[in-house]
Amino acid sequence: MKIQTFSIVVGGKKCNANCPYCVSKMTGETEGCTDRIEDINVRNFHKACQFAKMSGVNTVLLTGKG
Fold first, then answer.
1. Residue 7 host element (H or E)
2. Which residue range forms the structural domain that includes residue 19?
């Protein structure tokens, strides 16, 4: 099976883009979702990006509780 989409979950309620098509608005409140800014684990992020590249991913999806 070929991986086509690399989904990146943006933590917390940090996003302020207010996109009309945002999935997070359709899913209601999530328990434990905070406004706290978390540090990105850069090592794991780079590993995930390399895996996506090696797998031939053609789409990146940023998602979260905006």
1. strand 5-10
2. 5-64
